[in-house]
Amino acid sequence: MTLPGNAALLLIDVQQGFDDPKWGQRNNPDAEARIAALLAAWRRTNRPVVHVQHMSREPDSPLRPDRPGNAFKPEAAPRTGEPVFQKTVNSAFIGTDLESHLRARKIESLVILGLTTDHCVSTTARMAANLGFETVVVSDGTATFERAGPDGRRYGAEEMHRSALASLHGEFAAIRRTEEILRDLGRSEPAQDEKQGL
Q: Is the pTM of this model over 0.85?
């Protein structure tokens, strides 16, 4: 799958509040490094970058707008000119102008990464696909936490992560790794002499 030149990198909730121990055990400690690598590649190739920030209304959430945890992690801090869409629910499309922003720029492909795999990443990817966007979720650029089922059973973070990706795979999104996407970007970059107009 070759990404078009205007495929948008959609970073979901890469916020400091997810470092709070209240969330429990997390998988994929390297997710932020993968996010930083893809973000750098998108910026280097002048592809569109879109940030999503969760503005929790839950009284005890570290992601509330009045808490330090609402801030973006340094690895994913927006630059001037990169749009930020603030949401209060799981989907980045609900209550925001994200869809109209993408449509106005004729962006039809999204590469999604961030936190958490089974909540806001999954919900946004499902809705993106339903809206007709070609959707990629970066498996090693996402992470999640352990969960408790309704019967009290504990599900490990890696189990939750893999299950969420399996549910998306082939139905809502293509699941790809950072190295694959970076390789594709390298192949699609213009040659140096083309960049210089030679």
A: yes
